[in-house]
Amino acid sequence: MSLSLVESQPQSIPDAPPLEVGEALGPYVIERVLGEGSMGRVYLGRHQRLGRNVALKVLHDRLLRDRQLVDRLMLEGRLVNQINHRHIVEVHDFVEELMPERVYCVMEFLRGETLSHRLATRATSIEGIITIARQIASALGAAHAAGVVHRDLKPDNIFLVEREGRDDWVKVLDFGVAKSAPDQGEVNLVQSQQGVLLGTPRYMAPEQVAGLDVDARTDVYALGTILYEMLTGKVPFEASTFGQLAADIITQPPPPLPKLSTSQEPIPPSLAALVTACLAKKPADRPASMGAVDGALTGGAVIQPSSARPWKPIALAAAVLVALVAGGLALRPKESPTQLEVVPPPPPPVVLLDEVTLKITTQPEGARVTRGDTGEVLGVTPLDFKSARRTMPTPLRVELNGFEPLERAVVLDSNQRLEFTLKAIPAAVKPKPRRVVTDGVLDPY
User: Fold this and answer.
1) Integer Cα distance of 114 and 274 in angstroms
2) Is 413 annotated in the active site?
3) What integer pLDDT is reported at residue 212 of this predicted model?
4) What CATH number is attached to the domain comprising 79?
5) Which domain range does residue 387 map to?
């Protein structure tokens, strides 16, 4: 989902039709459409003079006014080029054109499949799992050495291509929510007003779910989750609501690994110990670096499992606050006044609805409400609309000329009423002038 951007007069730009085959985009000729997502369309392009194939991701027109999003894409390109690692996708260029108004990035064209597709279609041997994990560790180790934490490591962001005679050559994608070194700026993990969480919940570390500081060991936890999934075919924690998922990640140990992997091979005890250590609740109990993970994968180092010491109460409290916002969990004091217990709400007395109603009001009225992931316009406040029941968070964006736009992630699993008070933009604030930039940006896949 995109982050909100303060502008004096937010405007909506209808998306232009897809570029036609043979049409020129800068020095590139469009060959075909590779895919489309909430961020933009991805094309296969060919350089008119060099004949080189590239992936071109053209940002949706409706997102062009989101200056913060565009700047974040530029930052990612700079971070990726700074790391410059063979297992990280290459970014060649970032272009922001004025006539016609268009933003796109140029990246290396990859032939292959995502790790999530591989896991869904066939089992991977223990040897193959270790090979893939070592390449991921190598890429993230280089990123950490450059002062960059990925923060959204997951199978969808790991691409497998054919290279050097094998089909499991790793390319790590999407540093779009990466945390950079202090001198390069940083985006808060949780925006307190909008409640927007950057990352993918099922692969988040406890401190990330809680909105606390992250470091290289946050990526170590995500790699542990991926290892767990490659070995078992499922992630350690699943839940129907984000609140319950957050509580489980914070408080519950991961289910023990089975004796056999999905390829029906015995899971080596050393590999099982590594996965357990990577999934430790406290960052201090995890391997300290990707180099340590790689050493354990090759048998050159021994990683002891976590001691499972309790996490600091402040971290648990922060996680519970996030869970309360996202899933409506309840708190119940235990006998010790310094401890809190997460208690799931009682089962609903009625059957879950297939369709839910969302009522949205704003002060002042007349604000436009859109979906932050698809750009679909839902209506103008006061607004009642019906939606199919969903258990995954849906980003909603609220905009009104002269007021700061807001964004909120909502789980559409029950009838709800939302109220927003919009903040007027000070008269002295003016929109930033448009400019052309030629460096940077986001993974097209």
Assistant:
1) 24
2) no
3) 87
4) 3.30.200.20
5) 355-421
